[in-house]
Protein 1
Amino acid sequence: MRERHHEAMAGEHMNMTKQIKRRIPRIRMRHAPGTQPGLMVAPAEAMAPKISLLAYGPQGMEELKIERIEEIEPFLKSHPVTWINVEGLGDVDLIRAFGERFGMHKLALEDVFNTHQRPKIEPYDEHLFIIVRIPRHGEHLDTEQISTVVGKGFVLTFQETHGDCFDPVRKRIRNPSSPIRERNAGYLAYALIDATVDNYFPLTESIGDRIEDLEERVLTESRNGAVGDIHRLKRDLIVLRRAVWPTRDLVSAILRDESPIIDKLTRVYLRDAADHATQLIDLIETYRELSGGLLDTYFTLLSNRMNDIMKVLTIFAAIFIPLTFMAGLYGMNFEHMPELAWRYSYPALLLAMAVAGVGMLLVFRHKGWLGGGDRH
Amino acid sequence: MRERHHEAMAGEHMNMTKQIKRRIPRIRMRHAPGTQPGLMVAPAEAMAPKISLLAYGPQGMEELKIERIEEIEPFLKSHPVTWINVEGLGDVDLIRAFGERFGMHKLALEDVFNTHQRPKIEPYDEHLFIIVRIPRHGEHLDTEQISTVVGKGFVLTFQETHGDCFDPVRKRIRNPSSPIRERNAGYLAYALIDATVDNYFPLTESIGDRIEDLEERVLTESRNGAVGDIHRLKRDLIVLRRAVWPTRDLVSAILRDESPIIDKLTRVYLRDAADHATQLIDLIETYRELSGGLLDTYFTLLSNRMNDIMKVLTIFAAIFIPLTFMAGLYGMNFEHMPELAWRYSYPALLLAMAVAGVGMLLVFRHKGWLGGGDRH
Amino acid sequence: MRERHHEAMAGEHMNMTKQIKRRIPRIRMRHAPGTQPGLMVAPAEAMAPKISLLAYGPQGMEELKIERIEEIEPFLKSHPVTWINVEGLGDVDLIRAFGERFGMHKLALEDVFNTHQRPKIEPYDEHLFIIVRIPRHGEHLDTEQISTVVGKGFVLTFQETHGDCFDPVRKRIRNPSSPIRERNAGYLAYALIDATVDNYFPLTESIGDRIEDLEERVLTESRNGAVGDIHRLKRDLIVLRRAVWPTRDLVSAILRDESPIIDKLTRVYLRDAADHATQLIDLIETYRELSGGLLDTYFTLLSNRMNDIMKVLTIFAAIFIPLTFMAGLYGMNFEHMPELAWRYSYPALLLAMAVAGVGMLLVFRHKGWLGGGDRH
Amino acid sequence: MRERHHEAMAGEHMNMTKQIKRRIPRIRMRHAPGTQPGLMVAPAEAMAPKISLLAYGPQGMEELKIERIEEIEPFLKSHPVTWINVEGLGDVDLIRAFGERFGMHKLALEDVFNTHQRPKIEPYDEHLFIIVRIPRHGEHLDTEQISTVVGKGFVLTFQETHGDCFDPVRKRIRNPSSPIRERNAGYLAYALIDATVDNYFPLTESIGDRIEDLEERVLTESRNGAVGDIHRLKRDLIVLRRAVWPTRDLVSAILRDESPIIDKLTRVYLRDAADHATQLIDLIETYRELSGGLLDTYFTLLSNRMNDIMKVLTIFAAIFIPLTFMAGLYGMNFEHMPELAWRYSYPALLLAMAVAGVGMLLVFRHKGWLGGGDRH
Amino acid sequence: MRERHHEAMAGEHMNMTKQIKRRIPRIRMRHAPGTQPGLMVAPAEAMAPKISLLAYGPQGMEELKIERIEEIEPFLKSHPVTWINVEGLGDVDLIRAFGERFGMHKLALEDVFNTHQRPKIEPYDEHLFIIVRIPRHGEHLDTEQISTVVGKGFVLTFQETHGDCFDPVRKRIRNPSSPIRERNAGYLAYALIDATVDNYFPLTESIGDRIEDLEERVLTESRNGAVGDIHRLKRDLIVLRRAVWPTRDLVSAILRDESPIIDKLTRVYLRDAADHATQLIDLIETYRELSGGLLDTYFTLLSNRMNDIMKVLTIFAAIFIPLTFMAGLYGMNFEHMPELAWRYSYPALLLAMAVAGVGMLLVFRHKGWLGGGDRH
């Protein structure tokens, strides 16, 4: 087996903290370019794997934590569907053992460890290899990779971190009267994909709230932080779109694929999941347009306000600078300035100043500069 | 049956008021992600259902309000076409009973309750399931979902709220000599879709008026509120487009579909409806371009005006600030300033000031700053 | 027959004047949404129809004004091609009579009256129904609908207003040696479409002139009204594009259609017409890009000039405001200001002022602010 | 034969000068709309035709100027390939005679004279009719039309002006050992198209230089004329793109076409020409993006500089305006101003002024306004 | 053989230095337009070729530097796969000899020397001709062309410069137990393409770092050089995209191609390489969007700051300019100004000034101008 790239090793710990703070989508460098394909290296921040097994059928259901691969064999035989869920990618050998047990290609196994894959499906002879991404809640919107292998009688899932969004599916399996008990492994795969897609709904909903809030702030001038927030909103939408677009494509690809693993009944449900994904995409695109329009609107309102500020400045300057000049004129100390001695030159000057000031105001009112700006 | 998501329950009343005020398109979170597909939950603001039945044929026509599902059976047998219209989605059990009576799939029934679907058609063996959206008039442009099931001899429609836009269709049915009396249920479905599409025409027309009005305001500087209005206009166009684009697609899908429910004669009319939808889309896209151009034009004119304001300020400042300095100079109280005692230094200074001021004006006229800005 | 929508009636006269002033493309609301398809209502501003007949063939040609539909029958029999041209849509019954005489579908007849159709072709069994739009010259660029029915031995055209652009075609028909005399009705239809497409050439040419003129104005700062003119230019290009794009599509559709009404020889000519339409579209798209770039350039030059204005202001302010302050300082009336009594404090101050002013100028020259702006 | 449009005649001379100065792509109005197709009118600025003949084959090669069409007949028989090159379109009758000799359709002949065609290919039974455009060097980037007819044993080219870019091809033909001598007329057509495509390479190269130069100027603030130059650059790229895009399409169309005129060996070379055209398009699109980005960058840097200017102005104004006010206060002539008589009020005031000024400077340094702007 | 274009010769040395500094993608002018296709000229900066041979198979492996073409013959026979790597294109005759040995078409050979090709594949009967580009690290992001010929039992690569990114592949070949030893020449070609694609990963990663860094700088106002850096970032992304997009297309083309050189097993690996290229493209497009949004955000923040600056200026000017005027008024030297003699006019005036100043401040606070700008 090959060794990992040198510098990558050295910077591993530093990367781990950095990884978590990253705001911008990345592909992590997997290993030195040009190395042998199918090379498996655990991601820098990988957790130790926790493996759970859930085997069920119309007759009953068993659920347990397992540690060695041999433990799963009896369940594969005794139950119509066995779901093995691996949370955490920290043990390359163990995960490879599972993969090889179910006939995974080494390129597929490599993808399990390279956790920046796009959602995709790869049909193999005996199973389908599916990658989806679920949203991970943190300081920044981010997503986590879930690799799924669906074959006859089994579903194998690999998750990046501990804790997932599949508890509702587990609850349905535990319920003896739930229809999922009657169905095969393909239906379980559908249920997992559907749960994945559904997980984006509250997230997208919250983005709708953010846009509405920003719109309020932008249009009512209480504009604290609006630019930064719009920027972050747009970035989050880009992250969301990168996760949801290929998810829909992958569901469509399963539907087009003739694989016997997905039976006709499950396809009806998958069509529904595809429909949900389409709704998400439609909404995300709408939000992208709205947030783009928001920046334009904000910017134009900003210019509007600048115009108003400039008008105030110009009005003050244009009125008082000439008057100050006139006052300065008669503040000069020339010995021969006959006006200084005249009886009514002071009130006459005051009158002239008032006329000049009022005249200037009339000019500005005529220009419409006194009416304030855009009332939006 | 599953229980509704917890927090959703608690916030229901608050949501109801919020729902009505929402300006931004949403997908409401239907229920906890990952729950069983086909789950039916009435929308938060659902009204109690009012059900009306309209059965007709060449021989005659009957119209009544019904409350129990059994009441419809005789009409289904006695009349060629029966139209059952359910307004309000507040009673899940009743609506499910209707749906199951006509063989609806539970995923389709779920869509009836999730009232943020995109317009779509789903062909089933015995019927077509069609979702369209009609504009709902309120403070903000919004749309309402109408779910339609068309089968042999019946049309079943589910509307979100009481009151609809189908009265003209009802009038035509009531008229004994109207051609609609001779036609089958597929034609009635067409008539409803056509009425839906036609409902967008006055709305689009009014948007044309808003654009024309805004253009007038932008180009003639009476620019109160233009930015906010352009922003709202663009948002309304986005909402409109989201409703109309998939409507055309759905009409095209019906035309492509080989379903016997839609006979050849009705297809000719549907082609006409598709044509109307195309016109709407064409116009909406044109309006989107126009409103985008409007913001650009507005913004450039704003900058033009800013230039004019700055010119005024600069002209005043450049003329009077130096003059004020000169006046200030001779306002100093030094004991040894020989000019102060000269006989003609005051008129000489006045002359110098006039020369400086006029010279400055000539420079600005040469720069073209005295001619005002852009006359548009 | 149904009555027209109520409010529409009341506002008819007002609409008529408004209609003519409209600058923004519209779909006029045809009648109340949901009413029976195939309803014919004359447009608000419809003129009384003038009908002319032009029958020709290799043997000869006849041309007359007609008033009743029966007058056309003999010509249909005696001449290979009869062209009936109806100018003005003010008489619904008469026009319907013509339409029914030639087997038009009532939906097609409805389209004749709804004069905001997009250019399109609808093939029927016995004839083709074609809608094109020709430019109408007025204060704003607008287009007018021409509906054409082409069948075996006849062409029937309906125009919105009196006066058209087909005189060159008529001249060719009147000329006994013109090849058009030898050809069938399909060729006449081609000749009319070709004349329609050609009519956009001088219009597009004039838009090229406007762009060139605007470019000159924008780049040489003689920028009166440039923004408004660019805005209008962009709007006109949108109107043009809406008319020409579907025209090319319709010509292509005729070419693809297998209808025997268009024979092989005519198809060669239609290909030429499609080529002309492609040239128009290519040019319109080029002009759209150029006019978009023009606004960007204008706007950047505007900012350039703003920079220059601000530099002038800043130079004056930064030089004279400190000097004025220094003068103000020695204009104070404190009793204990020893400098006031010194012998050379006045010239020393003047020197200090000169040094400060020149130093400031040097700083600005170093910053490059004295060299003027962008010389484009 | 029809007469030319009246006004066009009158304005001909004026057009000629204008034509040459035109910067914006145009379609010249060919003749009155609606006139008979196939009408040939020499372009306004057409030159008298110069005709040259170049006949060659493995055995030998002949080259001569010809004036009458009869002169070409012997060469057509005696040599495998005859290339007749007509430079200048000033003689309609002569050119029509050539066209008819080689069986050109009158619509194709019309296109020869309408020199604003897009590059295209039209396959006829006996020959291919190809239009390409070569760059014409002048004050503004412009292109010139070359119409080519390729048939069995002959190539006929029509050029708008005297002088062309085909001398390298002629040299290869004159060279007895050149492979072109062994090939047929289709290969000659390829050689001409290839020379055409190659002619755009140095032009595109020079645009790369212009972009690099502009980038230098924009980023280093030596920004004289940058806006106008970017604008012209973008316009030139639009012109280039209009010429090159359809050229690639036409080469692809020849490759798809099954015409026996282009043999298999020539197709290999044509694929190479298509590849070159793709490279050109790729580069032109890249340049378009770069030049668009350049304007954005320029504009943002401009705003940056504006900010710097405004900071200078604000710093001066905010420091000296209050100080001047304080000085003005003690320049007042009230009789009862006790401070005026105090012993240390002058130095105290000077101190207060220094404190105020320095305080203000500290505030501005805290705001980061003293550090200059963006150092790019 | 033909001579090179004249001016090109003269400017060769100058070009060589220029070539290296070029920041903008170019197609170098290959030779005079219209010259014979298949002309080979070494690029201006070509290095003398270094040729290495690597022959291997399950039995063993040989590696040596060669100088004459005859040296390779024994290896071609004795080993299943022979890889000949030519680094540097400075010797046209030698390279042509290699090309001809392996049956390369002269157009393909010409492409080897024209080192600005887009990545592409050209299938020939006996081999595939593939061009890829690898990133070249230097002051500016640039790419280098690698031309590859893959046939039965051999791979021939031509590189522009000495030194490459294929060392990991060589290491794998040298390792006797590596699977690559078992595979054919098609697999070696895959390994080289895969190494090429992988080489873009760290580069793209570093661009992610640059965007994150720029985002930090833009949002926290430490904005030194941000505009120039964003500009350079966008340019680098354009260069990257030009290299990666066609690479994916070429891998897809190999997959579609039925060539027996690429066996089924290798195709599985190529699909993986295509997947990596798709990930790169996805990320590059995301980065393009992010960097575009960054400039918008930067620009809007800039305008925000300008607003703040203008507010400070306006507040100072609007408060102190009127006060200075008032002070100037009582600094006038008129003999008849009764206020000057009043007992309390000085404190009254001071009070009036304080009231005016505070009033002005209240007005500005009401306008929200005192609260600073956008806190992002």
Protein 2
Amino acid sequence: MSVFEPGSDRKFAFGRSPIFGSVATPDGSVAPVETWELIYQLGDVGAWGVALHDDEVAPSGAAPAELDDNFDKVSKALDSTGMVVSMTRTNLSGYPVFDDGAFTSVDREVRRYAIQKAMRGIDVGAELGADLHDLPAEGVSSVAATAPLDALDRYREAIDFLCGYVSDQGYSTRLAVHAKSPAHRGESLIATIGGALAFVNTLDRPEMVGLNTGFAHRASPGGCYGVDQALAVGKLFNVELNAHVGHEPNPGVGSASVGDAFFLVKLLVETNYDGPLHFDLDVGYLGGAAGICDLVGGCMRTCRALVAKAKRFADDPEIRDALTECGATELAEPSVGPFCPDAGRMLSVERFDARAMTSRRCRGQRLDQLVADLVLGLR
Amino acid sequence: MSVFEPGSDRKFAFGRSPIFGSVATPDGSVAPVETWELIYQLGDVGAWGVALHDDEVAPSGAAPAELDDNFDKVSKALDSTGMVVSMTRTNLSGYPVFDDGAFTSVDREVRRYAIQKAMRGIDVGAELGADLHDLPAEGVSSVAATAPLDALDRYREAIDFLCGYVSDQGYSTRLAVHAKSPAHRGESLIATIGGALAFVNTLDRPEMVGLNTGFAHRASPGGCYGVDQALAVGKLFNVELNAHVGHEPNPGVGSASVGDAFFLVKLLVETNYDGPLHFDLDVGYLGGAAGICDLVGGCMRTCRALVAKAKRFADDPEIRDALTECGATELAEPSVGPFCPDAGRMLSVERFDARAMTSRRCRGQRLDQLVADLVLGLR
Amino acid sequence: MSVFEPGSDRKFAFGRSPIFGSVATPDGSVAPVETWELIYQLGDVGAWGVALHDDEVAPSGAAPAELDDNFDKVSKALDSTGMVVSMTRTNLSGYPVFDDGAFTSVDREVRRYAIQKAMRGIDVGAELGADLHDLPAEGVSSVAATAPLDALDRYREAIDFLCGYVSDQGYSTRLAVHAKSPAHRGESLIATIGGALAFVNTLDRPEMVGLNTGFAHRASPGGCYGVDQALAVGKLFNVELNAHVGHEPNPGVGSASVGDAFFLVKLLVETNYDGPLHFDLDVGYLGGAAGICDLVGGCMRTCRALVAKAKRFADDPEIRDALTECGATELAEPSVGPFCPDAGRMLSVERFDARAMTSRRCRGQRLDQLVADLVLGLR
Amino acid sequence: MSVFEPGSDRKFAFGRSPIFGSVATPDGSVAPVETWELIYQLGDVGAWGVALHDDEVAPSGAAPAELDDNFDKVSKALDSTGMVVSMTRTNLSGYPVFDDGAFTSVDREVRRYAIQKAMRGIDVGAELGADLHDLPAEGVSSVAATAPLDALDRYREAIDFLCGYVSDQGYSTRLAVHAKSPAHRGESLIATIGGALAFVNTLDRPEMVGLNTGFAHRASPGGCYGVDQALAVGKLFNVELNAHVGHEPNPGVGSASVGDAFFLVKLLVETNYDGPLHFDLDVGYLGGAAGICDLVGGCMRTCRALVAKAKRFADDPEIRDALTECGATELAEPSVGPFCPDAGRMLSVERFDARAMTSRRCRGQRLDQLVADLVLGLR
């Protein structure tokens, strides 16, 4: 079936994380492929986009000639493959100077340095035609040293400044903040999708900023809750589909928690999400460049299969019947409508038969099993 | 020291959770004390407030005479002890009819029944003079049956309706939504403080609704992140100080994770939080009514000690010195100020000495140890 | 295909957990079906066995006539359906007296009472022909009050005593200890499969005692690690296949984490596990008796599908090829064999080309994707 | 008080983790101090021992002259400071070749290479007089490629071989396996203390092998359960006291979860543990060499304070009284003694008053509060 074949019908995008993940040792090193080589490889497998860190094109301290050469090679690779840069990212990992915080470091000069680095990263994206620029999650290593409200203020100040910069430069770039659970750098300042949404609401130009997120970095049934809030307010700018389980990228949608992956993809399909379907590739995990093709192809294949299953969920008569049977279709109907005194009075005197309601409780078992069948390919 | 003695200087409030937690068996039952008895007991230990579930005063199906008698006994107990009702709560646990969702049940009648129950709970609170009414977290048992965006719509509809009801009745009650990790009922619709904040932003009258939350129900360093976002926008209406570790109420601030408790209390002190300091008492855990006095006294004692330590943090010269030394005081200073083209230009050409910045990185060790000393009572 | 149809070819066993889970309220109660009715219902769907709590047949304080009647009805139901009792269980939940520990309570009389209850539970099992008796996980509510080494001693003493009792009665019953993460009762004394295995090694008659466990009650890739240790030493007496995710029974193999479920079932197939395939049914979740049929049928259906997929893993030529390609088949070969001085000397001077080894690193991507395809029904 | 001052009365030992944690970048690098410098620094603060990775003394590929020079400098530093090497460790992190497993890699040559590296690491330890050699946790990146039972066999084969090597060389070294939750390398083969204990029981020479562990890498009340099992069978060879919360080393005992730390230290004191009190120092976290002194001194200071608190727990009359009151002292008494038919008969007919037992349930609140007071320095 065509949905399992490589193609350009989906906005599949890939990036490397972390770009400094490979360490040279006397005993055997992993050399990551060059950025342009990666683009050619991704293009061969049918990817639509690539997410690039600033340092992958414009490493700090590079001479102008080197920069020109890098941009040139990347542009050629993009032209040749027909791929786009789905987003650029300011890379802060691998730099000890940012390990205690970047936009929220206690060191004002570090904060300024981080903002400058983000400006340059945004420039890189603008030059390469990326619509989106991703800012990494902020982490805190000493809770005592980092007053939470001040840290929120500094984070807001930085994003507001960068929005101003984007506007002033005439870029159309949108910014994405990254909600993430604590991982590499102590405690995340904003660890949840909801926290990121609430934070965006406090910005000067909330319309310019959204989220880059996905599974909320935890394995649980219904991993789509949280993402739904972002989708409901149009703030899911980029979805990460890696099944983060524990702290190890586990590439390939749903290799660990395919139930979560199904419900997330189903939600994306139902809400007509049209942003990138992004996967981070852990270069350390790849065992060298040779594994990229298998991995990238697999990610797309699994995602397409889940998309097909999500569509089948909508179309399958037995599933529709089970949805009706357990009352699920009723959830779209208002419970009470907007308040008015009459509605309040009527509801307050309505008589309910709790025993009857209990006895007809949601018989989700049949529906859940149909979904299990669907996911497992039994229907 | 007075800070360790019972007194009325703090808004210490206590409630029972869950109120249906004790099960009658042939082999030995736990009979929870009557509501008014609990109030007398709390008053004896010096508590300021009590949080009451609707069913503790007005159980479903109670006859008018029974209701009058209950209100009468509760009012007398409040008068006699000088205590207040810090908040009322709509109890949905222990009712199987709500186990698949209340305001977001797939059964429209169940949704209406839940809203009616909340209206009555709000009435109870208004009659008893409570400023705040707490609505429990919404849970989902079948992800397939509960379309996330519809569930959010129904939840919003219910809260908007209840705000309308509060206004129409002329009550001054504010409502609190409860951000909670998945526990008793499958997956929580809104599991995080941030999610609750973002949700409140979408309501018709966001000013009437805030959060009842606390440790975000997880043990981690810096458990105050998340709570800080609620405080920053004035939305922390009630703080729960139980040290939830795992899924067992572990009453007594910080008996498990006193570091978290310290930073949370410190944040409350620094932001002049003036709401209730709330503790849920697990009646099953208490071993009968006899333990309440020890437990309630212990909660207040530990909390007062942490308040004293938080004040000491602000005043201690060596801690102030360590804060300065590691640059923490600089975090209150703007990094770049508001964007203007000139500021952007200047920052973009600023030269930074990354090596120097790295070498002066946050020496939080001394500060962290001073905090450890402070918490352990070594200073 | 027959593997998807109900049948008696697998040892599918079901039990209720917790049996006191439903609470009578004025507003709508859930009445669990009688034990014998449950057996008829399970038999209708094709189950092989039922796991019974002592209290489901012989509730505390029951009169002799009631007991006789219960045994009679259960025996008739078993005869009529051809089902067996796969195991009996001492029920300790729902009794507040055991909430601070049972075999390890600080109250010696409670410990004796718990052992007596287990003896009676074992008697019930012997009378009903059960091979296995399951003892619940021990929990601790006050760490300060429960000296860990004493608690281990008391737990060991209780199990040793019960083994003596089983022998003395001439029963062929084996006992199962339950490794479990902290849930209902504070901290589990022994929270992991490994801890239970190590504990069994310290018993007087380790051959009589094994484990009742499954997913180790956490969601992670490779949930089979841990279970493998129990299988390797012949100590997996009963496997629980509920996909515990969080703390809510989520019935139906793999509805949440089908990857974990696949690898666990694959391990059971590969090691010719021949014990019960057990599922706990949460009566609260069922929405009344009516859902049992759907749920039980679904559990068996999914499990059979996973068994078929596990067999396919072993037979599929492309998977075999991918296993060979990534070197997986080499893992069965000894690395160095038993130590002898010559082997030591030779290994110590062997020259390795680390770079070459790194560059041929495990290309698991293709294999992992084939497994994803297998699980999703794409092959 | 002397317990807060640096001294040599405790076996405080420190090591670096991970030794390849610092990455050179154009923008600011962290250069870890040389091994001998670290020893002098540790000696200055009063540490007793240092834990060394093989590569810190004998890096792969080092020329004989370099090795001699390294051993010379380290020996001089040890002599000069009077410190000992508490243990040596085979370092496998930072080498991509081991990222899919070392002793359990699917690549037989990699497995042999890892064993050779461990032999050399053991040699380094023997030359430096270390009693203990620590072997890192085994990780698995592709569950499909790594058959669990084969992996256990290979792991056992490697440890058995290394025990043979130690014997054959006439070393007195004991080996430690490392129980660890999944972190850097996918899934840990043996993730728990109990799993490691059960594994050691299957070795050829179990008496030569024990555990290097600590908080079981999770934050929970009663983090001492698990460690207690290792202590009960004399298998805790080295205790790690870092308060691992999440996956970030959080140096300083108990800075996050001082309750856990207290109960662990209390258990060590009560069981007369006499092995090293070990801390891993994260060089990335230190902000350069300058922070070591503060951090190391702080770890010892906090640990000494907790030891003093643990002793106070044993001596304090009010705590003793609370222990008696809640019946905790009764836990040391046998419940039933060894089984004999008479004891069985008597217990089976004993009458218990469940209601009375329930009503006198463990009143741990007072005790728990006394412990809270003790930890907070209020008594």
